[in-house]
Amino acid sequence: MVTVDRDRCNGCGECVAVCPHAALSLEGNSPRAVLTAAERCMECGACGLNCPEAAITGNFGVACFACMTQQALSGKQSSRCACAC
To answer: Domain total for the chain?
Structure first.
């Protein structure tokens, strides 16, 4: 699961801009990143890699890898994002 440290987040919105599944948004009077759609998050790591404050952590790559493995085993392909999940 992706975690946002709201004390470190500066509200720049880079994570929101790079999330291929629109799982993050900026909220609040002093906008900070929030994981608003956890069900869409594939933990690809784009948000964490692009956060200038290192405010986003997670087990990046695991969910995408699991998704790609399931697709390979089922023979089905998807083009929803760069990781093919």
So the answer is: 1
CA angle, residues 36, 47, 30, in degrees to nearest 5 = 55
- Whether 81 contacts 40, CB under 8 Å: no
pLDDT tens across 24-67, in order? 999 999 999 999 999 999 888 999 999 999 999 998 876 666 66
- The verdict on residue 64 lying in a domain is yes
What region does 79 belong to: left with phi over 0, alpha with psi -120 to 50, or beta?
A: alpha
Residues facing 34 on adjacent strands: 25
Within 8 A by CB and 6+ apart from 52, the residues are 10, 12, 14
